[in-house]
User: What shape does this take?
Amino acid sequence: MAHILVVDDEQSICELLEITFRKEGHRVEVARNGEAAKRLLQSQIFDIVISDIRMPDATGVDLLQFCKELSPSSYFLLITGVPTVETAIAAINSGADRYVIKDHDLVDQLRRAVRQVDETLRLKHEAGYLRRELRRLTGQDNIIGHSPKMRAIFEMVQTVAPQSSRVLITGETGTGKELIARAVHENSPRANQPFITINCGAFPETLLESELFGYMKGAFTGANENREGLFNAANGGTLFLDEIGNMSLQMQVKLFRVLQEGKVRPLGSNEETEIDVRVIAATNKDLDKAIAAGEFREDLYYRLSVIPIQLPPLRERRDDIPLLARAFLERFRTSMEKPIEGISPEAIHLLEAYDWPGNVRELENTIERSVALETGNMISVAVLPEKVSRQRKEIGEVPGVAAITANGTAQIPEGGIDLVKHMQDTERAYIVAALEACGGVGTRAAELLRMSYRSFRHYSKKYNIN
Assistant: This one.
């Protein structure tokens, strides 16, 4: 709900509006004059300001201009008991969002106005959610894998997502830590609330503090207006703190205090705001070693690591490489509009043999590069990076390896093929492709493959497909 400031020199109006909006669940502050209102505006961030136009020490228009300089995103509603054409014009020209006359209908008019603003704020959050959901549904944020280690992680995500417990995700760079964090959020009751991310290693200490907690105008050089921090922006949702291991010790102390008390104080403010945010942190560092070296606070570690999730590197789940490669191929051949049907058996074999120090991200970049360079209808060894293709000398001839093509076309390598494995790989690839095409709905996927749902379930169970 909204954070509202009511400004009026009439005590009865202040009390009436405070009671009205508190009953509707809003947080309400009251000021009886312009100077008191300015002090509150300098120390807190408000979604809505409701102000009388005529007050002994200031006009509502003056206060409106003061507010817009501090916090341009705040909605400002002007009320008056002495309506004139001049005041109405001044209010509109100064940027007031609503001009309301004090009469018997005042409370109802303000209720409607506040509800409209509340709906606008909700739609802004929803628009962000829909953009994230679109990225997920178009494959940008999908988590792909059927190896035992990844299946265990998927089960962990399903188990912990409904809770509000903090999660610490660890793993090498490029293993998909943010995707797991998004999966936890999107499978939780907070899914329709904001998912905000920040890379803690990308900001110097002072800038990171202002990004996380926000600041008031004048808090430091360049702070020309009030700004909401990411903790407040994520209120009701999830805040993902990536590369938490790179946070300075001083910032760790401040973060620990926020996690312990559930309150945030913007820089330059004396007021604290209660927050309801699920924190998910991630790092590629060994935090046990960092604690022993005095580089990471042990108390913060235990605050963050309520539920630890360790992501395996790609070299420890090689079974997922053909599946990931096919998914990336499908994405890039579509975006580049290239008629590439699949990946050659030898290329698949080399991809599986490579250790992928950059993990899934490196594989994704490799497939994108290969699609861009390939002139034929299959990704060949010739377009693979030299660090991948040079393994041909080390591993020798390719044994019978099945190519997973987009249209199912068979290609037999020179050394022959293990037909049973080839058929199993093909069956599994098409079941996964059908599920992806149907948004995970098994009955529709079975129809797409022209098979009974009972048979579809049998094959899904056979190949450990969730």
Remarks:
- The chain has four domains: 3-121, 148-312, 315-398, 418-466.
